[in-house]
What does this fold into?
Amino acid sequence: MPKGSPELTEKRKNEILDACEKIYREKGFYGVNIKEISTRISLTRPAIYNYFETKEEILLGMLTREYDIWCGELEELISWAEKSDKPALSARIAQTLEKKDTLLRILNMNLFEIEQNSRTIRLAEFKKQYGRSNVALTKILRSFKPDITDTECEAFCQTFFSFLFGVYPFSFHTEKQIEAMKLAGIAFREPGIFQMVRQCLAMIIPDK
It folds into this structure.
């Protein structure tokens, strides 16, 4: 890690992550490379390597940051959930993911390769946020239904996270995919993230 204040280090890291996110949105996983990132920010390629060893580590850092934001939003719902009903709780949790298309896209399409090509210490940073999201959802459930069992909480989290790892392809389609489905005679439907997440939660959140 380069010398400098923690504030400057964090600023540089976020500069790298912001540029990576723009490229990822424009060109996808295979369009991201450190050379391209360096052309969009004030850091050279060698300087970027002081912060991240591979492009996968940059993408993992981006995902970790997205999870950090999401966890903060979930934690705000813990006390609110106590007086909520099931439809309202499903909708509120779904809202926290409605604009998280980058997070869901990475989870669904690129996470395995990213994890394989990142150092364990970087992967642990992500896993910490992943665990935090699990804890936050469990606390939301316990606030909503105080008599919920550990088994019910565990089953909910396993089902919901499995769902999140597959929801993106159902909500976003390329023009080529849409054309192929038309040629195949498949009725095209593209429900939004909010709609799909809310429907899933309405089925798996236990009744009070």
